[in-house]
UniProtKB/TrEMBL annotation:
Keywords: Ribonucleoprotein, Ribosomal protein, RNA-binding, rRNA-binding. GO terms for biological process: translation. Residues 48-69, 85-121 are annotated as: Disordered. CDD domains: KOW_RPL26. This is Large ribosomal subunit protein uL24. The gene is rplX. InterPro entries: KOW, Rib_uL2_dom2, Ribosomal_uL24, Ribosomal_uL24_C, Ribosomal_uL24_KOW, Translation_prot_SH3-like_sf.
Length: 121
């Protein structure tokens, strides 16, 4: 299973696919709702929306729920890029190691860094 540089809650931009003027999602930005590392996919808010037809069924309370539901489908992780918080443009992710002292112990912590501006993410 691969380790990703994109995590749940990050703001990402779609960098591949059809352009927005042709009905696609390229260029759209959204928050990562879920990461599926075993499938190399991420679920992004407002991106790759699909409609699912549900048959009306009887629920325990006696109501019938059915119709067309629209929700997001996962996107391959290679098709999204993290957005730099400083200038709202897509950026690559790098790491910087820092030594932090806590409770008399020295630890090395990896911090995500924007390759575009050098700022911490």
């Amino acid at each position: 299973m691969a380790k990703f540089k994109i995590k749940k809650g990050d703001l990402v931009q779609v960098i591949a696919g059809a352009r927005q003027e042709r009905g696609g999602d390229r260029g759209k930005q959204g928050k990562v709702l879920e990461v599926y590392p075993e499938r190399n996919r991420v679920l992004v808010e407002g991106v790759n929306r699909v409609s699912k037809h549900r048959k009306p069924t009887q629920t325990a309370s006696g109501s019938t729920a059915g119709g067309i539901e629209i929700h997001e489908a996962p996107v391959h992780i290679s098709n999204v890029m993290l957005v730099d918080p400083k200038d709202s443009k897509p950026t690559r992710v790098g790491y910087r190691e820092e030594t932090v002292e806590r409770d008399g112990r020295t630890r090395t912590v990896r911090v995500r860094v924007s390759r575009r501006t050098g700022e911490d993410i």
